[in-house]
Amino acid sequence: MAFALPLLADNYSLVVPLLARLMYERISGAESFFRSVLASMETVYLNRNPTAKAILELVHSAEHGRICYDHFAFRTFGVNGYGIDSLASFFLDFGYTLRDELRFPAKKLKALWFSPPKNAITEDGSGISGPLPRVFISELLVDQMSPEAQRIITKYTGLSGTANKHAALASALGSLTWEKPLYSEFQQLARESEYAAWTLVNGYALNHVTISAHQLKSHLRNIKSLDQFIEENGFKLNSEGGILKVSPDGLLLQSSTVADSTSFTFSDGTTESVPCSYIEFAERLVLPQFNNLPEKEVKEHHRRDGFEVGNADKIFESTYKEQLTRKAA
């Protein structure tokens, strides 16, 4: 026997809570799965990048509380369906919204960033269990590269078949979707674009996570204090454009460590050190129109949102050889 919901007009007080509960369970279930995928991406990232793991533990210990992520960032090849869209589709499916495009002509890159869904359930946890992060996905404009670089990139993305449809899975597993490259091809790309060389050996791996400095509770919520704390504990920060990268409006402040390196065995048997990932820090200041709000009432939407080309351009170089080989200050 089939059952029908009571007539809305006669049973409003019964129907609305029921529908709300069904919607909550639907959102909650999908969000739980989504966060599990992010957690797998984070696990791969932390296992490969001891600096990021150590800094997260260090800040967490100093804070005695939660750490919130400002954003997650990924790199892609803009060719044959392996660009931004290959990863963005996963986030869009789970309620993310496309916001703005950024261009980096000198580096032959473009990027899109996405804001998290406003109906996310969990807000009080730490890390992956806290507020969902923004997502920043960049891609190399392959058609602007030299013929030789294009040949190398299209060779490996071509060998990958339709694996671009499973970019998020590749990131969560920490697997390349193409064969390991030749060392000579890695070197060729590195001479032309260190971004391209990084992507060839790291694929869809999480490029970096970003600690939201202003959501910390101790004195470390000031990014200058956080940077000092990181350096005093022996970690090297990206100095390109200065340790602290500041947007023209002065409201977005960013810094990052230098990427870790790992041993990588290429398809020809050559084993060499290649750059992995790094960790970033961001402080978003309160927008001028909300300066009169009491500090306890300030929420994330009262702060400077988005990204800045000048800042991001320098942050990209956290994986570059010049920063990796630079001696700590």
Number of helices: 10
Coarse shape: globular
Query: Secondary-structure element order, as H and E?
Result: HHEHEEEHHHHEHEEEEEHH
Largest sheet: 8 strands, mixed
Q: End-to-end span in angstroms?
A: 76 Å
Number of domains: 1
Instruction: Give the CATH level 1 class.
Output: Alpha Beta
Estimated helix fraction? 25-40%
Q: What name does the CATH topology carry?
A: 2,3-Dihydroxybiphenyl 1,2-Dioxygenase, domain 1
Chain-wise SSE layout:
Blueprint: H1 12-48, H2 50-63, E1 69-77, H3 84-93, E2 97-104, E3 109-115, E4 134-140, H4 147-159, H5 167-173, H6 183-192, H7 194-202, E5 208-212, H8 223-232, E6 245-246, E7 252-256, E8 261-265, E9 271-275, E10 278-284, H9 309-315, H10 321-324
Parallel strand pairs: 1-4, 5-10
Antiparallel strand pairs: 1-5, 2-3, 3-4, 6-7, 7-10, 8-9
Protein name: 2-oxoadipate dioxygenase/decarboxylase
Cofactor: Fe(2+)
Keywords: Dioxygenase, Iron, Oxidoreductase
List key phrases describing it:
single chain; 329 residues; alpha+beta; 10 helices; globular; disordered N terminus
